[in-house]
Amino acid sequence: MRTLRNTLAVTIGACSLTAPAWAAPEAGAKAMLEEVVVTARRVPRIVMEASETVSVIDHEQLRRNTAYGLADAMRGLPGLQVTDGGQPGLKRVRIRGEESRRTAILLDGQEITDHWEYGTPLSLNPLLVERIEVVRGSGSVLYGPRALSGVVNFITRKGGTEPLQFEASSGWNSATDGRERFASVFGDLQGLGYRLAVSDADHDERDTPDGEIENTAFDNNSVYAWIGRDFGAHRIELLYDRYESATDVFVEEEQRTAFPLTDFRIDVPQRDREKVGLSYQWRDVAGFLPLVKVQANRARNDRQFDTFSSTFVPGPRPVATDRSVYSDAELEMDDVVAQFDWIPAHDHYIVSGIHYSEERVAQDRHVDTVTNGTTGRPEDIRDEAAIETLALFVQDEWHVGERSTLTVGARQYRVEGSLDETNRAGLTPGENDDSHLIANLGLSHELGDNVVLRANVAQGYVYPSLLQFAIGAYAASRYVNPNPDLEPETALSWEAGVRVRARDWVFDAGVFRSESEDYIDHVFCAPTDGCITSRDKRYVNIGESEAQGVELYASRAEGTQRWRPYASLTWMERENRYETFTTKDTGVPELSGSLGVVWEPAFAAALDGWLDLALRGETRSKREEPSSSGTPVLQGDDAWLTLNLSGGLQFGARQQLGLVMELENLNDERHSTSAENLLAPGRSVSARVTLAL
Questions:
Q1: Residues 6 or more apart from 187 whose CB is under 8 A from it?
Q2: The whole model's pTM is what?
C-alpha cells in the first residue's frame, strides 16, 4: 500500500459499434440533440457531436415522474435494465446485460462505491437530481474500473436565483401504500449559492396481480447540503449527503427450500451512505490551460446484512441445522481526481488527470449454530481489507477538418489489494497487485448540419472486489471463499450509429457489440481448494460473454405541434460461455421498448399541462446458469406488455404548484421484468404534489 502513496506523491509533485444517444421520450427532439453533457468527455459537449452513446434525463423529465427511486425513473433508456435482487428499496441498473457491479455510479462526477455482490444501489432522492447522464459502453479510460459497461452520473441540484427559495412535495403510491415527503431550502446570497434538503419515505409490501408479496417493505430518509461560490476565475463547492435505508428482502420459494434448505431468510436492517465532497476549479489559467479541477471525496457505507437458514440432511443419522449469521460492515473510500485540460493547438483539446482512491472495509460476522437441538459455540469473525488504485489518464479530442472529430484516450492502472486482518480459518493475510493499460478511440463526422455519423471502440477493466479476493460472502447457508488469485475482468466494445434531424423529427439509430473475459462468479469448491466444508463455494474466473444489439429511437420535435409521438426499440442478443457449457439464454430479452404519444394542450399563461400514453414491454427471456449438480438450471420470464398513462398540471405565474399522476399497468398484466426477481406491481396509481416558492 505504501508504494502507491509514494508514487502518487511523486507524480503530483512532478506535475462499436453502439446504440443511439438520446434523452427519455418526454424530452423534445431538438432539445435532446442540443443537450450539453459533461460525462462522456469530462468537459461540456453537445449530444449531437458525441461519438459515445449518451442518454440524458433532465430536471423537467424528473419533475414529470412519480418514481420513488432513480432506477425506476431511468426505465425508458435503451440498453438499460432495472434490477432489484429481491430488494425493492435498493434497486440498481444494468447496462446492455452486464451485471450492475460493472457500471460506475457517480454523484457529481465522483464515484459511489459498493463492493457487495449486486452492485451499487441508486440511493439518492430523485428530487435532488438536476439531470442524469448515462454513457453506454466502456467509460473506463476516464472513469475507472467499474465503468466497464458504462457510466451513470447523477448531477445534483445546486443553488437558486434569489436569496431565499423553498420547495416541498408529498407523494403517494398505491402499489405499496407508500408515502414520501421532501423539502428543500435554497438560494443565492450575494454570490454564495446554497441548498439544504431533507426527505423521508415509507413503503409497505408490494401489491401485485397475485396479491401482496411478503418481505418487500422498505423505508429511507436523507439529508443533503451544498454550498458554492466563485472567486473570480476560481470556484469552490462543498457537498454533504447522507442516505439511511432499511429494506426487507424477498427470497423465492424455490431458493428458500432448495435442498438441503428447509427455510432461508434475509434481512437488511441498515444500508446507510454518507459522503462529503470538495470541488475546486480554476478557469482560464493560461491560453493553453483552460481548466484545472480537483475533486476530493470521502464516503462511508454502513451495512448490516443478516441471514437465517435451516437445513435438513436425511440419512441413518439425520442432521437438522439452524444457522444465523449477523454481518456488520463498514466500507470507507477516499477518492481524489486532479484534472488538467490543455489546448496545445487550435484543433486539439486534451483532458488529462491523476486518479487516486483507497477503499477500506472492516467486517464483523457473528454466527450462531444449532445442530439437532444442540447449541454450538458462537463464532465471531473479523476481516479487514483494502484496495488502493492509482491511475493516470489522458484523452485528446482532435478536430480533423471542419466536420470530423477524432477522440483518442488511454488509462494506466496500478492496483494493490490486501487482506490486512482475519481470524477466519483457511484465510491468511496477504497482498496482491496488478498493472494494466487500456485505451479508446472514437470518431464523429458531420455529413451535414442535421446528420452525424459516429463510431467508438473502448476497452474496459474491473479489478476483483474486496469481497471477491479478500473477505468472501455468505450465499444462503454456504460460505463463498475469496480467491486472491483472481484475474481482473476485461472487456472490449465497439459502437457505431447515426443521428438525424429531419424537419419536425429526430431519428437516432445504432448498433453495438461487446466482448468480456474472465467473468468472476462463485462455484462449488474442489477438494484441492482447501475449503472448510464440501458445501462451500469459491470465487473463480468462470467464463466469457459476447453481446450485440441494435437500438432505434424516433420522436417528433418540440414546437408548435401539441401531439408528439415517440418510439424506441432495443434488440439485444447475449451469449455466456462457462467452463462446461455455452448458452444464449442469459436473461436478456431479444426485444424491448416503448411506443407512446405526449399531448401538451394550450392552456392559459398561468397553467401548463401534459399527458403521456405509453405501451411498454419486452419479449420472453430465459436464464441458463451452472448448478451444483453439474446440469445447467433454466429459468425464464414470460413476455409482457403494459399500458400506462401519466399526466400533470403546473399552476401559477411561475408554476409554483404542481400535480403529477401516473396510472401504471392499466391492463393489470402479471409480469416480472427480465432483470428483476419480484413481480411488478399490478394496476396502480402514484401521485405527487409540489409547492415551490
A1: 159, 160, 161, 162, 163, 164, 165, 193, 194
A2: 0.88
